[in-house]
Amino acid sequence: MTQDHAPFYEAARLLKKGKSLDGVIQTKTLCFMCKQPAKKPVQCSACKGVKYCGAACAKAEWNNRHVMGGVIRGHKEECAKMKEFMLEAQDVRDILLQFPWGRFESDGRFYLELALAMRNLLGKGQSYGWWTQEDQARAGARVAPLFEQTSGGWGSSLLKPAHLGEKDGWKLPIDEIPWLKFDDVKPPPFPPNFEQNWTSYYGWRGLPLKSPAALLLHWPLTVYRLLYLLGFASPQATADKRRTIVIHYVGAEIELNFLPIFGELTLFFPNTDLELVMFGPRAFELVTTSRPPSLSAKPYPYLYRAPEKCGSGSIRIRLADSGPFWDASCAKTPPDAIVGLNAGMSSYEPWFTVFAASRALSIPFAVTDYTRQSFLEDENSFHMMGLRAVNGTELGQLLGTKGISVMAKALEKPCECALNPFMRPGPKTPLLINLPAGINGFTCVVTPRALPP
């Protein structure tokens, strides 16, 4: 247990004794304007989506501000849209409240660290299995995807010769584990049949709602949701006509800590061979520096095939060795789909190439992000992203005049955004905004799949 985790274990101890948590967990809110801590924050009375340290900052941030290089949009232009986004606040809360361990503290916030501490799952290192946390700033969510050349210590378990077994990885009671080895446990009914929500999925999977497994399962379930929205979930393949789906998974970071839970995807895609290629600085670092017998030195660090009674789906995960980022070379042999989780497309330039290639070459592409506001900012930046991705670049040379013209016309196409029913349960604690937010909170189909006639 690190010093960062100590307050949450103390809070868990008090909760188990039925005592108050007042003052045990220190929280802060930053002013949306000056980005300084707000001791007594005031929120916009119209949308209730942003908070300020006082009236002066609220007034200063209301109108557009001219700065060197452009204009910063004032809250006046976004207030109405934020008010609309706030309508989903209860929907985000309700996703957590499906679970008996789902709770909001007196400040209205959900603390992932506290939920884990209640089950003695909060900590760093192999003794915490697949729940191992990075530094507190990174715990439970990615930070600056695709931005840093090296991202933390994610995937250190891939330097070992073998994965943890399911019992040691999940660190949960036997009946709360979503087993993929069905020698001694009953497999879920086949074919898969559940509604698109956690309660129905848990029922199909035979898990009690007291299991916190969703706090990790939201990663593979969100990939499934994106593939579902792209049209890959149906029609299902048959035993005599298997199919292969190659997926480029862009921006992998914390996911490198628990590759085996992505075996869950095989249960949703019977008679299908999934190949998941993970891109990111840390994935590239691992695959190019590791030596045998490390898992990351293998062509496929993770392989799994579901038993015949579960549909015989298979998955193999590869760490991309072409570079730390998805680039034009990846477009020469396009995958069947591209996905990115908690992407922040318009915030990180490496995403521009992914976006432009998907629009120019009609590569199915879907992402998640924390808020709907993020997708609005992305759509407002599409023209800038597309032009910068092809102007004097390798991708521009690959596409040529015709391809760039196709991309330019496709920039006008809107995205399909929605609340993700398989988001990580529990709203993401925001520092600057009060909008409904969650890890993998909202989905966006950036480039839809062109279905055959």
Share of helix, binned: 25-40%
Describe the main β-sheet briefly: 8 strands, mixed
Strand content: 5-15%
**Count of beta strands:** 12
Oligomeric category: single chain
Tally of helical segments: 14
Strand order of the biggest β-sheet: 7-8-6-5-9-10-12-11
Radius of gyration: 22 Å
Structural class: alpha/beta
Explain what you see.
This protein has 453 residues and is of the alpha/beta class. It has 2 domains: 1-27 and 111-134, no CATH class; 143-447, no CATH class. 28% of the residues lie in helices and 12% in strands. It contains 14 helices and 12 strands. It has helices spanning 6-16, 55-62, 79-85, 89-96, 112-117, 166-170, 198-205, 214-229, 281-289, 328-331, 350-361, 372-380, 382-390, 394-410; strands at residues 42-43, 51-52, 65-67, 70-72, 243-250, 272-279, 302-305, 314-319, 337-340, 365-369, 416-419, 442-447. The strands form 3 sheets. The protein has an 8-stranded mixed β-sheet, sandwiched between helices. Strands 1-2 form a two-stranded antiparallel sheet. Strand 1 and strand 2 (51-52) form a beta hairpin. Helix 11 (350-361) crosses helix 13, helix 11 (350-361) crosses helix 14 and helix 13 (382-390) packs antiparallel against helix 14. The longest helix is centred in the last third of the chain and has 17 residues, at 394-410. The model is unreliable at 136-150 (pLDDT under 50). Residues 31-79 form the MYND-type domain. It holds the Pfam family MSS51_C. It comes from Rickenella mellea. InterPro entries: Mss51-like_C, Znf_MYND. This is MYND-type domain-containing protein.
